[in-house]
């Protein structure tokens, strides 16, 4: 398509590189932006610039951070004896938004996936083993996706942690809260029957 | 929600100001961006900067432009005697993508909408009347939304153009090509019956 202005063209191309943004949406976003005041547009620019310049990763858990150590790891009120292992920063945000977890995190940066060429050495598994070895850790909780890659990663990593004697757990799998039984896929339903838990009155 | 980094926080807030982008999508876009190379991120920055600095509007039709006069108005192969009146730059892009129109445009910058406080003087109606007065125009085609505001704008503007003797038309309204009759709303269907056209064999 021919755009009336090359600035528009370039901005549309830039927005189209983002996930889930196609041509029509990109045009809509760009035309929205150019209607904003100069101040609003340069605010947007500065926000993107900060992404390039100011992003740091926590040296302990590899979470995104403003400082050398992130706000979770440096928080004295978080339980440092419990480490939740996640794939991605997004998962940290998801778990934090539940307000149900008081421990700390370890961000692997992915899962083992031979088909994508991702092996254990590409992930932050060694530094997790190191953290556990340094002592003070009671439990490692794997909160990875319930996929083959996730399971492989749990299996590999827990083998590395075996000698440390730390308690290893995974988050519960089963039907979602509020989920209607008839709409749940048969594998999840089958597994959640096998993994049934005693009901206490 | 608490973000692990203030750069992330600001970028998420910036993306959330865009239409149709909520919190979850904004987080996804930002986390995608920070995974890109520095070069890719600064490309994005420059594209936004260009929106702020390099956008010009055509002095003839008020379309977006790289120069004083846009590529449509300055194209000798476009029929300068036919002016298509649209609400918005987006509509120019939509009509251009059909490849069915060889005339030029006039971008009003909105439609008359008393409820939003937009009167005729807020739109580029006077400059359209001026263009027609300057001569050489045979037809003014209104391609505005089929809403009350669109109709009001057509009515007001065509009254201003009446004395010039220019031919005035609106784009056809009716059922969409490929549309199944049973799914079409009754008002459109009713109107398209009233506005039936002779079928030639």
Describe this structure in words.
Two copies of one chain form a homodimer. By secondary structure, the first copy, chain A, is an alpha/beta fold. Chain A has seven helices and six strands, in the order αααβββαβαβαβα. Chain A has helices at residues 6-16, 23-34, 38-53, 89-96, 125-133, 148-161, 186-194; strands at 56-57, 64-65, 79-86, 103-107, 139-142, 167-170. In chain A, the strands form two sheets. A four-stranded parallel beta sheet of chain A has the order 4-3-5-6. Chain A has a two-stranded antiparallel sheet with strand order 1-2. In chain A, helix 6 links the parallel strand 5 and strand 6. Chain A is globular and about 65 Å long. At the A-B interface, helix 1, helix 2, helix 3, strand 2 and helix 4 of A face helix 1, helix 2, helix 3, strand 2 and helix 4 of B.
Structure at a glance:
2 copies of one chain form a homodimer. With 201 residues, chain A is an alpha/beta fold.
Structure keywords:
alpha/beta; 2 domains; two-stranded antiparallel ribbon; 7 helices; globular
Structural domain count of chain A: 2
The Rg value of chain A, from CA coordinates, equals 22 Å
Number of strands of chain A: 6
Q: Averaging pLDDT over every residue of chain A, what do you get?
A: 89
Largest sheet of chain A: 4 strands, parallel
Oligomeric state of the chains in view = homodimer
**Distance linking N and C termini of chain A:** 66 Å
Element-by-element helix/strand order of chain A: HHHEEEHEHEHEH
Q: Helices and strands of chain A: which structural class? A: alpha/beta
- Please identify, by name, the CATH architecture of the largest domain in chain A: 3-Layer(aba) Sandwich
* Overall morphology of chain A: globular
Provide the helix percentage of chain A: 25-40%
So how many helices of chain A? 7
| Largest interface pair | A-B, 60 and 60 residues
CATH class of the largest domain in chain A: Alpha Beta
Low-confidence stretches of chain A: none
Strand percentage of chain A lies at 5-15%
Reading side by side through the largest sheet of chain A, how are the strands ordered?
Answer: 4-3-5-6
Predict the CATH topology of the largest domain in chain A: Dna Topoisomerase Vi A Subunit, Chain: A, domain 2
